[in-house]
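This section describes the prediction task in plain terms. A model, or a person checking by hand, is given the sequence of a single protein chain and must write out its three-dimensional structure as a string of tokens. No templates, partner chains or ligands are provided. The sample shown here is typical of the held-out split.
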Amino acid sequence: MKARIFPENTFFSKVKSGGMKRALANLFLFVLMGASLLLPRLPKLDQFVAVDETLWLPRGANFYYALGQRDFANTFQGGTPGVTTMWIETAAFLVKYPGYRGLGQGYLDGFKQLDKFMRSNGMDSHKLLIISRIIVILICGLTLLLSAAILSGFVELPTLITIVILIGFDPFYMAYSRLAHLDGLESSFLFLSFITCFAYIHYKNRIVYLLLSGGAAAFALLTRVTGALIVPAVFGMFLLELMDKFHQWRKQGVSWRNFVPEGRRMFLGLTYWSIFVLGFLALFWPAVWVDPHRLLALFTLPANYVPTLAASPEFQLASIPATPQIRLPSISFRYFCSYFWKTTPVTLIAILLAISQYICRFSTTN
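The expected answer:
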């Protein structure tokens, strides 16, 4: 029997085997969802500027210039590292101003220098920013649609539509997925990586899911070092699945020897996933081509990044107000408190429901 790449009940197999009418209906549904995600984000992209975007535009310009000069070491422009954002701005340069890399201006320091140089050469930095935003919108939209297509194998259609609406129209996600910045991209890649890893665990021997999960995890890491949160999440999913299997077998009186092949499958899955992550990181970060130590340094950054960010004046300004009633024990803890402070009520309720559902499920297996 020929193995299928995708499970029988996902969107992909439905399009392939469900008949022409059903395939067209499914395709129309996803086109409709895609339009609902894209159309609200596209208008008036030329009527605002975010402060952080002006930080990354010159970095993207230097990244593009470094690629044009084959100076791969200088494609590292910051500790975040923001590589995916700089690739997007490189694509914007190729669309609008491909000759920028050959003007001999060197590496410019800050947006004012970049804007002045571009104006003196008949180029408009704001047009470049708008193109970058459009690319970000397309990437975030397509990533969410791909995640929805994978999810169609696990949930019913009304639930799937609800998930897409809640995520796609979340106020924070709506705003950040319109910016040529990091957060919208990082969250999109993290979600895709989590969903595809979940799909691999529940559909055996379909390595395409591991490839998608590892690639998305790598892009999340290349976007911002906090993307490293996907690593314990993925390892936790594999461990929880193994524990769940063990409890089921113990309850059914199955021999512990069955644990060995399942443990081997989980170990191989984690190994392949890790290889895919490292492979994508090395492939899409040119600085690693000449300095492989950059790759190792990337995994040590999160330990310092969160406390540094939490101690910054910008973070303190947007954090929980300091009152005698609220005493936070550490800077790192304050970071997570601030996350919950700024998360929407719907998201908090969903997190609590998910945790309670798992606890109930785990307790029934014992």
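For orientation: DSSP finds 18 helices and no strands in the chain.
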